[in-house]
Design brief:
It is found in: Cell inner membrane. It contains 17 helices and 2 strands. The protein is mainly alpha-helical and about 450 residues long. The protein has 2 domains: about 1-175 and about 230-440, Growth Hormone, Chain: A; about 175-230. Strand 1 (about 400-405) and strand 2 form a beta hairpin.
Length: about 450
């Protein structure tokens, strides 16, 4: 479900841009993931209080409604609204992980977490070969027919088959805090997007930025100090905070790659722009084979976590991502499909690894009664990283665009600058990853159900 709602629309980014007359790829491609960041703290806290199954069903139904809105959207504004509703499906991932923690033994749950977080990418292996003909026959709308159908079926199956067990935590949900935090994040990220249109020092851009910063300051200085804040920042241990830093950087770098690949697949090498991967088999190879990488990376990380711990798995993921980006950069990946496919495969293994390892480490650092809340914080950082990097990448391409035959296109300089930026983020992520491995060295991370490393 998550892959159909978040990943599948990246196949039709250019078609969506043409349909709604915009060049803001970042908003089209990232609006659902951005909404996922806003939904995550609210749904995670609600799940611990009211029950994970109930909140999961509600999230899936909201995502189904969002798919219907996207399907019938008459303009970009309504379409983005639909994507914001679809973003609730992000909760399906972290709530599934929290439910796994309720029904599985600790060591076994690490492996199952890998299957849940990365196994869904198996959908991506066949998606290009199914979606491509559907898009050709019925247009971009077919993508949202698929995701809406998945959401409805998933909600029904969860309601009928998933046990409504697990401990619940007494308390209340700080809706005001969630809304203010969401507005703050939206303002800051919106500035990155609007700066390309109205100028980085334009009145509209600065107004949006100021509103976002003001909301974040109000939340940090006032609302976060409430007895039950939507995110308990002061309760985050050093290890957990470092882990979140690795996650936001590593997964953000990977997700931005999806946006870039979608653009490369629209350009043929014969156009003479210095890049382009368009070919009859390119879509299937660039999205299908890397999906195998996500599955292998996630399930492999789950299995290895029982032996070497999730912190070391997390560090391996960062190194794999760095290697994949280097291959793309120095091997001429933007114009060479034979290089782009293995590079994308390595990056996809990174994605599966980072997600699984982050959830596994988070589950060790949190008591059972707060599994949904802690898992939602991981998902919040995943979404923030993805959206931020997509906006940054879009800004790089926008600032380096050129005009060819009267049409504005991405320049080869912008494409390579995009890849260099992704690589730099992976290199920077290696620093906290190494620190994390050192801090948890010697700890029996998989030995008990509620092992706490908070003292670190």
């Amino acid at each position: 479900m998550l892959d159909s709602a978040i990943g599948a629309p990246t196949y039709v980014l250019p078609e969506l841009a043409r349909a709604f007359g915009t060049d803001q790829f970042a908003w089209i491609g990232s609006s659902a993931m951005f909404a996922g960041a806003l939904w995550s703290p609210l749904l995670g806290k609600s799940a611990d209080i009211y029950g994970k199954r109930k909140v999961l069903v509600i999230a899936l139904l909201v995502a189904a409604l969002g798919g219907l809105v996207c399907l019938t959207a008459p303009n970009l504004g309504v379409f983005v609204l639909g994507r914001l509703l679809q973003g609730a499906v992000v909760a399906a991932l972290f709530l599934s992980v929290a439910i796994v923690r309720d029904i599985c033994a600790p060591k076994f749950s690490m492996v199952v977490t890998g299957i849940v977080t990365a196994g869904s990418a198996a959908f991506g292996i066949v998606t290009p070969f199914v979606v491509a003909p559907a898009i050709e026959a019925f247009g971009w709308q077919s993508v949202f027919v698929i995701s809406t159908s998945f959401a409805v079926v998933a909600a029904l199956l969860v309601r009928l088959l998933v046990p409504d067990g697990g401990s619940r935590t007494p308390g209340k949900v700080d809706v005001t805090g969630a809304l203010v935090l969401a507005l703050g994040v939206a303002g800051v990220l919106g500035y990155i997007s609007l700066g390309q249109v109205f100028g980085w020092l334009g009145g509209v851009s600065l107004l949006v930025l100021a509103a976002g910063v003001a909301a974040l300051l109000f939340w940090s200085l006032v609302l976060s100090r409430r007895p039950e804040p939507i995110i308990n920042v002061r309760g985050i241990s050093l290890v957990f905070g470092v882990m979140l830093l690795v996650v936001v950087m590593g997964t953000g770098a990977y997700q931005s790659k999806l946006q870039l690949i979608s653009m490369l697949l629209e350009v043929s090498p014969e156009q003479g722009l210095g890049y382009g991967l368009a070919s009859p088999l390119a879509l299937g190879l660039m999205f299908g084979i890397p999906s195998i990488g996500i599955v292998l990376g996630g399930i492999g990380a789950g299995v290895l976590a029982t032996r070497i711990g999730p912190a070391r798995c997390l560090a391996v993921g960062v190194l794999t991502g760095t290697a994949g980006t280097a291959l793309m950069l120095f091997g001429g990946g933007p114009s060479n499909l034979a290089v782009a496919v293995p590079a994308s495969f390595l990056l996809s293994m990174t994605a599966g690894n980072l997600m699984t390892s982050a959830f596994n480490l988070a589950s060790i650092l949190a008591p059972k009664a707060r599994q949904a809340t802690v898992s939602s914080m991981v998902m919040f950082m995943v979404a923030i990283g993805a959206v931020t990097m997509n906006f940054v990448g879009s800004a790089i391409l926008g600032q380096t665009a050129i005009v060819v035959d009267g049409e504005t296109v991405n320049s080869v300089t912008g494409i390579y600058a995009y890849i260099v930026t992704v690589g730099a983020v992976f290199v920077l992520a290696a620093i906290p990853a190494a620190f994390l491995v050192r801090k948890v060295r010697g700890q029996a991370v998989a030995a008990t159900e509620t092992t706490s490393l908070g003292h670190l």
